[in-house]
Amino acid sequence: MSLGPQIHSPDNPEQRGNAILPAAVLFGSLIAGFFEPAILFFGVLALGWLAVVVYRRRQVFAEQFSTIAGLSKDQIALKSRSHFLGLVLNASDIPIIVVQGETIILANRAAELTFGGDRALTNTALDELITHQSVLDLASRAINGESGHTRIAMPIAGQGHDFDVAVDPLESELGCVLTFRDITELANAVALKADFASNASHELRTPIASIRGAVDTLMDTGEPTEAMRERMLAMIARNASRLELLVNDLLDLSRLESPDSPPGREQIALADLVADTSDEFSAICARRSVTIEPEIENGLEVIASDPVLVKLIVRNLIENAAKFTKEDTSVRVQFSIEEIIADPQSKLPQAPDHPRGLQIRVRDKGVGIAIAEQQRIFERFYRINEPTNTPAERGTGLGLAIVKHACKRLGGSISVRSVYGQGTTMIVDLPNCVGADHQSTNK
What we know:
Elements lengths: L12 H21 L6 H52 L4 E5 L2 E5 L1 H7 L10 H4 L3 H10 L5 E9 L2 E11 L5 E8 L1 H37 L5 H32 L8 E4 H11 L1 H7 L2 E6 L5 E4 L1 H18 L5 E9 L17 E9 L34 H11 L3 E7 L3 E12 L9
Parallel strand pairs: 7-9
Antiparallel strand pairs: 1-2, 1-5, 3-4, 4-5, 6-8, 9-10, 10-12, 11-12
Helix pairs in contact: 1-2, 6-7, 7-11, 8-10, 10-11
């Protein structure tokens, strides 16, 4: 079967004969013409014949040259198109694998980085790379022209990832194309939303049930004693306050997660901030004999940031420290100037007039946090079981989640350092909030 235009070789015997015969007649006529001039007439005819043959040969060569040139252009265009498609595939951040039979014949850069550890995947068997039977079954059915997709979980670089895998057949080929869309963040977000709704419902149900129980008790008792009335009213007041705290924390968390409210920028006096915040917890500090000791670096009286977010950070950190530190101890709240690099993913604009960063350290002398719990304390509704605190002092479990989101909104971060049995230090780094004229006095 012909795959392209036929190219006639100039060495074809028929073409070569057509040129030799008139040349021989012409040469013989010239020689015989020395003896018989009349024979030169045949030489003239042979010369015309030769001219016709040469003209036809030139046409053949011109056609061959045109054909070869056309093929070269097609090959160059095909190669260029293939190279361009390769660039497009490699530019995609979605892993794409092409399988023929049971062997991988093409894989883009993202697939090699994700599944091959930056090694080539060509000529690798598909079942050596993907062991999930659902994907292998889809690849087998794709040979018969059936598309499909499935979800799989795979460990990538030591971490679990969820993929939505689409398998589509190749036209006129016994193969298929597999695309792997990483939906890990989406799956985590869905799980987080479900957990949040479940935890919030549980946290709301407890105080509501307590209030309802106290009300029912008062209503069902014909003549409640004064002691019972006071106990039920105290229960209602305590759980109503808990509901108020929980609703306020949920509203704060909702505002922090909303992209519609960008952070503000105002002058904040740190001494006034700590004083106002400490007054809110004066009752619990007096009951537990805890003192709050602010330490503000010399020359660092004022910063420029969002006053609501900064107060949320300081308030929640001081509240946690006051509740969990040991009785008859102090909570140190330190403010210092540091060189802090803003989170590159933050949308907070750079501030040339305030290029330096603020570090906040809140230190308590509590029992500390176990290593296994140090990363979980920033999860919503996660609380450490601390036997020294009453249920009213345990909080809503949203404080550190609020601090984490507030830091993120300001382009900063929060970390924890804790030695079990000795105490905990919460460290907040906030970039671009200290003016260039503020000079650190730390040596």
